[in-house]
Amino acid sequence: MTNLLGKTQTKNIAKPDTKNLEKSETKKLEMSETRAKKIKHSYQVSDAENALLLKTKNGDVVIEMFVNDAPNHVARIKELVRQGFYNGLKFHRVIDGFMAQAGCPRGDGTGGSGKKLKAEFNKIRHQRGIVSMARAMNPDSADSQFFICYDDCPWLDGQYTVWGKVISGMEHIDALKKGFGPSGMVDNPDEIISIEVIADL
User: Fold this and answer.
1) In degrees, to the nearest 5, what angle opens at C-alpha 94 toward C-alphas 93 and 99?
2) For the chain, which residues make up each domain, given as ranges?
3) What is the pTM (predicted TM-score) of this model?
4) What average pLDDT score do residues 180-200 get?
5) Which of 34, 58, 125, 161 minimizes the number of CB atoms within 10 Å of its CB?
6) Which fold has domain 32-200?
7) 51-71 average pLDDT score
8) Contacts of residue 65, Cβ cutoff 8 Å, sequence gap at least 6
Protein backbone atom coordinates (compact mmCIF):
# COMPACT_ATOMS: atom_id res chain seq x y z
CA MET A 1 0.00 0.00 0.00
CA THR A 2 1.30 3.47 -0.90
CA ASN A 3 1.64 5.95 1.95
CA LEU A 4 0.68 9.49 0.98
CA LEU A 5 2.85 12.31 2.27
CA GLY A 6 1.24 15.01 4.36
CA LYS A 7 1.27 18.67 3.30
CA THR A 8 4.01 19.61 5.75
CA GLN A 9 6.19 16.71 4.54
CA THR A 10 5.94 17.65 0.87
CA LYS A 11 7.22 21.17 1.57
CA ASN A 12 10.56 19.71 2.59
CA ILE A 13 11.14 17.76 -0.63
CA ALA A 14 13.96 19.27 -2.65
CA LYS A 15 13.27 20.37 -6.21
CA PRO A 16 14.90 18.21 -8.90
CA ASP A 17 18.00 19.59 -10.61
CA THR A 18 16.16 19.43 -13.94
CA LYS A 19 13.40 21.84 -12.82
CA ASN A 20 14.74 25.00 -14.47
CA LEU A 21 16.85 23.70 -17.32
CA GLU A 22 16.92 25.70 -20.54
CA LYS A 23 15.66 23.94 -23.66
CA SER A 24 19.21 23.81 -25.04
CA GLU A 25 20.35 21.95 -21.89
CA THR A 26 17.77 19.20 -22.11
CA LYS A 27 18.65 15.99 -23.86
CA LYS A 28 16.32 14.56 -26.46
CA LEU A 29 15.47 10.89 -26.32
CA GLU A 30 17.25 8.75 -28.88
CA MET A 31 15.14 7.83 -31.90
CA SER A 32 15.79 4.93 -34.21
CA GLU A 33 16.58 5.71 -37.84
CA THR A 34 13.52 3.73 -38.93
CA ARG A 35 11.24 5.70 -36.58
CA ALA A 36 12.71 9.01 -37.78
CA LYS A 37 12.11 8.03 -41.41
CA LYS A 38 8.50 7.14 -40.64
CA ILE A 39 7.90 10.52 -38.99
CA LYS A 40 9.42 12.43 -41.90
CA HIS A 41 7.54 10.30 -44.42
CA SER A 42 4.26 11.05 -42.65
CA TYR A 43 4.52 14.67 -43.81
CA GLN A 44 4.63 13.49 -47.46
CA VAL A 45 7.21 15.99 -48.68
CA SER A 46 9.40 15.45 -51.72
CA ASP A 47 12.55 16.77 -50.01
CA ALA A 48 12.70 16.81 -46.20
CA GLU A 49 15.76 19.10 -46.25
CA ASN A 50 13.74 21.74 -48.09
CA ALA A 51 10.47 21.48 -46.21
CA LEU A 52 9.33 23.14 -43.00
CA LEU A 53 6.97 22.16 -40.19
CA LEU A 54 5.32 25.31 -38.79
CA LYS A 55 3.36 24.79 -35.59
CA THR A 56 0.47 27.05 -34.60
CA LYS A 57 -2.08 26.73 -31.80
CA ASN A 58 -4.54 25.63 -34.48
CA GLY A 59 -2.36 22.80 -35.83
CA ASP A 60 0.63 21.88 -38.00
CA VAL A 61 1.42 23.55 -41.32
CA VAL A 62 3.81 21.95 -43.82
CA ILE A 63 5.65 24.18 -46.29
CA GLU A 64 7.68 22.92 -49.23
CA MET A 65 10.44 25.32 -50.27
CA PHE A 66 11.40 26.18 -53.85
CA VAL A 67 15.16 25.76 -53.59
CA ASN A 68 15.68 25.95 -57.37
CA ASP A 69 13.68 29.17 -57.76
CA ALA A 70 14.92 31.10 -54.72
CA PRO A 71 18.06 29.32 -53.49
CA ASN A 72 19.46 32.19 -51.41
CA HIS A 73 16.15 32.88 -49.71
CA VAL A 74 15.61 29.20 -48.93
CA ALA A 75 19.14 28.92 -47.51
CA ARG A 76 18.60 31.97 -45.29
CA ILE A 77 15.17 30.83 -44.11
CA LYS A 78 16.63 27.46 -43.12
CA GLU A 79 19.49 29.20 -41.33
CA LEU A 80 17.07 31.33 -39.31
CA VAL A 81 14.81 28.34 -38.63
CA ARG A 82 17.73 26.30 -37.29
CA GLN A 83 18.67 29.20 -35.01
CA GLY A 84 15.12 29.18 -33.59
CA PHE A 85 14.64 32.75 -34.83
CA TYR A 86 10.96 32.35 -35.73
CA ASN A 87 9.84 30.51 -32.60
CA GLY A 88 7.37 32.66 -30.68
CA LEU A 89 7.09 35.42 -33.30
CA LYS A 90 3.63 36.75 -34.14
CA PHE A 91 1.40 36.78 -37.21
CA HIS A 92 1.27 40.53 -36.73
CA ARG A 93 -0.50 41.44 -39.99
CA VAL A 94 -3.39 39.27 -41.21
CA ILE A 95 -5.85 40.44 -43.86
CA ASP A 96 -8.76 38.13 -44.64
CA GLY A 97 -8.81 37.19 -48.32
CA PHE A 98 -5.27 38.51 -48.84
CA MET A 99 -2.44 37.22 -46.65
CA ALA A 100 -0.98 36.47 -43.20
CA GLN A 101 2.41 38.02 -42.41
CA ALA A 102 4.95 37.02 -39.74
CA GLY A 103 8.67 37.01 -39.02
CA CYS A 104 9.15 40.38 -37.31
CA PRO A 105 10.96 40.14 -33.95
CA ARG A 106 9.44 43.48 -32.91
CA GLY A 107 5.93 42.31 -33.74
CA ASP A 108 5.01 45.45 -35.65
CA GLY A 109 6.49 44.89 -39.12
CA THR A 110 9.55 47.09 -38.59
CA GLY A 111 12.10 44.47 -37.52
CA GLY A 112 14.18 41.72 -39.04
CA SER A 113 17.27 39.59 -38.57
CA GLY A 114 19.62 42.32 -39.81
CA LYS A 115 20.57 40.65 -43.08
CA LYS A 116 19.01 41.93 -46.31
CA LEU A 117 18.52 39.57 -49.24
CA LYS A 118 18.94 40.32 -52.92
CA ALA A 119 15.64 39.74 -54.71
CA GLU A 120 15.11 36.40 -56.46
CA PHE A 121 11.93 37.25 -58.33
CA ASN A 122 10.69 34.21 -60.25
CA LYS A 123 7.78 33.09 -62.39
CA ILE A 124 5.84 31.38 -59.60
CA ARG A 125 2.47 33.05 -59.18
CA HIS A 126 1.12 34.33 -55.89
CA GLN A 127 -1.75 31.92 -55.41
CA ARG A 128 -3.48 30.49 -52.35
CA GLY A 129 -0.92 28.87 -50.04
CA ILE A 130 2.12 30.55 -51.62
CA VAL A 131 4.80 31.76 -49.18
CA SER A 132 6.65 34.89 -50.24
CA MET A 133 9.03 37.43 -48.71
CA ALA A 134 7.80 40.76 -47.40
CA ARG A 135 9.97 43.77 -48.22
CA ALA A 136 10.13 47.57 -48.19
CA MET A 137 10.23 49.74 -51.34
CA ASN A 138 13.74 48.58 -52.22
CA PRO A 139 13.47 45.24 -54.08
CA ASP A 140 16.56 43.99 -52.21
CA SER A 141 15.22 44.78 -48.73
CA ALA A 142 13.66 41.40 -47.79
CA ASP A 143 14.99 40.08 -44.49
CA SER A 144 13.09 37.64 -42.25
CA GLN A 145 9.46 38.62 -42.73
CA PHE A 146 7.27 36.49 -44.97
CA PHE A 147 3.62 36.19 -45.87
CA ILE A 148 1.27 33.35 -46.82
CA CYS A 149 -1.38 34.11 -49.45
CA TYR A 150 -5.02 33.39 -48.64
CA ASP A 151 -6.09 33.86 -52.24
CA ASP A 152 -4.66 34.53 -55.70
CA CYS A 153 -2.76 37.86 -55.70
CA PRO A 154 -1.57 38.38 -59.31
CA TRP A 155 -0.53 42.01 -58.67
CA LEU A 156 2.32 40.66 -56.48
CA ASP A 157 3.76 38.43 -59.22
CA GLY A 158 7.33 39.32 -60.12
CA GLN A 159 7.45 41.91 -57.32
CA TYR A 160 8.15 39.70 -54.32
CA THR A 161 10.32 36.60 -53.93
CA VAL A 162 8.23 33.43 -53.76
CA TRP A 163 10.13 30.74 -51.85
CA GLY A 164 7.59 28.14 -50.78
CA LYS A 165 4.06 26.79 -50.67
CA VAL A 166 1.82 25.36 -47.96
CA ILE A 167 1.09 21.75 -48.93
CA SER A 168 -0.92 20.84 -45.84
CA GLY A 169 -2.50 22.64 -42.92
CA MET A 170 -3.68 25.71 -44.83
CA GLU A 171 -6.87 25.56 -42.79
CA HIS A 172 -4.77 26.45 -39.73
CA ILE A 173 -3.50 29.58 -41.49
CA ASP A 174 -7.12 30.38 -42.39
CA ALA A 175 -7.97 30.19 -38.67
CA LEU A 176 -5.39 32.80 -37.58
CA LYS A 177 -6.75 35.87 -35.81
CA LYS A 178 -7.46 38.59 -38.37
CA GLY A 179 -6.43 42.23 -38.23
CA PHE A 180 -8.45 45.41 -38.71
CA GLY A 181 -8.27 48.37 -41.04
CA PRO A 182 -6.29 48.68 -44.26
CA SER A 183 -2.99 47.73 -42.60
CA GLY A 184 -4.40 44.50 -41.17
CA MET A 185 -2.45 44.86 -37.90
CA VAL A 186 -3.64 42.32 -35.35
CA ASP A 187 -4.39 43.08 -31.71
CA ASN A 188 -3.01 40.27 -29.52
CA PRO A 189 -1.98 38.18 -32.56
CA ASP A 190 -1.50 34.44 -32.85
CA GLU A 191 2.08 33.25 -32.81
CA ILE A 192 4.38 30.77 -34.47
CA ILE A 193 4.94 28.15 -31.78
CA SER A 194 7.89 26.78 -33.71
CA ILE A 195 9.31 26.15 -37.18
CA GLU A 196 11.63 23.25 -37.93
CA VAL A 197 13.25 21.83 -41.04
CA ILE A 198 11.55 18.44 -41.47
CA ALA A 199 14.91 16.75 -42.09
CA ASP A 200 15.89 17.78 -38.54
CA LEU A 201 12.91 16.15 -36.82
Assistant:
1) 110
2) 32-200
3) 0.81
4) 96
5) 34
6) Cyclophilin (2.40.100)
7) 98
8) 50, 51, 52, 74, 77, 78, 163, 164
The β-bridge relationship of strands 130-133 and 146-149 is antiparallel
Q: Answer yes or no: is pLDDT of 48 > 70.
A: yes
CB-based burial of residue 181 (10 Å sphere; 0-12 exposed, 13-18 middle, 19+ buried)? exposed
